[in-house]
Amino acid sequence: MKPMLEAINVATNTSFKIEAYNSSSNCESTGWHIHPEFELVYVKNGSGILNIGSQKKNYDDGVLVFLGGNIPHADFGNKDYEDGLEIVIQFKKEFLEEKLKVFPELSKIKELVEKSKQVLIFDHQTKEILWPFFKRFEKLDNQGKLINLLSVLDYLSESAVYEKLFDAISLSNYKKDEIRRLEETFEYVNNNYHKNISVTEISQKLGFTPNSFCRFFKKMTNQKFITFVNEFRIGKALEFFSENNTVIADVMYRSGFNDPSYFTRQFKKYQGTTPSAYLKSRYSESPLQDSLL
User: Fold this and answer.
1) Where in the sequence of the chain do the CATH 1.10.10.60 domains occur?
2) Reduced to 3 DSSP states, what percent helix, strand and coil does the chain have, rounded to the nearest 5?
3) Are strands 38-43 and 63-67 parallel, antiparallel or unpaired?
4) Residues 236, 242: contact at Cβ < 8 Å?
5) What does the pLDDT look like over 198-251, one tens digit per residue?
6) 31: closest CA among 83, 80, 73?
7) What is the spatial distance between Cα 59 and Cα 165, in angstroms, rounded to a whole number?
8) What kind of architecture, by CATH, is found in domain 176-282?
9) Where is the signal peptide (predicted)?
10) Which CATH class is domain 4-164?
11) Spatial separation of the C-alpha atoms in residues 149 and 151, rounded to whole Å
């Protein structure tokens, strides 16, 4: 089965994305999927199966795995224990090509990131040693998270024991041109979500007619382009709400919506609640500044 290409929403003010999932907030399954971002996954405990490319590998008592971009894989986590925790760190290739290369002292980390294209599965001792670092992410601001991530990568590049899942660099079944076009589409939405998204403009940019672009996007992602745009915008709205912005109208416009009723419907579709109810639960101790929605 051909994997679905997943869009990773990395915030504009960060170089990477970190998500944590526990037994009550499990990562929504995306099934067999692929994305251009590198991915470092820490599963605290429990047993499961790593389905990556053409390989399957069982794990017990959690796992720590690092895989490069454009490698098809299924979800890694499990629901064996109530105290289970899965921490997923994702970053784009620009993190390696533009940021890490600035510091020659980080050459071993750059080598580690390159090796991740063969998929690295670390031993149990490495996973246990790094647990305090992964646990620490939830309490850190963006600067602290970057420093903590570099500490993790430093240890992995200097002292960790690992096995390579593939003897050679794993290649995606997707054509390079298909991946390039999807990456350009995601980048277009990332740069223009707050404005009017033009299917005609993005179609011309990629060499499609509007109809052929919509068919291409549906084939590659298993969802309509407008669905993806709305889901992306709601993700941005959550990002803006997390910045202690409780003015719903402001967040609505900043995330690319112009109609309060439509914004409310889309927010409830993806979050299961209205913007005002979401804010009340998030900022229960402080009054809302806006009751527009």
Assistant:
1) 176-282
2) 45, 15, 35
3) antiparallel
4) no
5) 899 999 999 999 999 999 888 877 778 998 899 889 988 988 887 776 789 999
6) 73
7) 13
8) Orthogonal Bundle (1.10)
9) none
10) mainly beta
11) 5
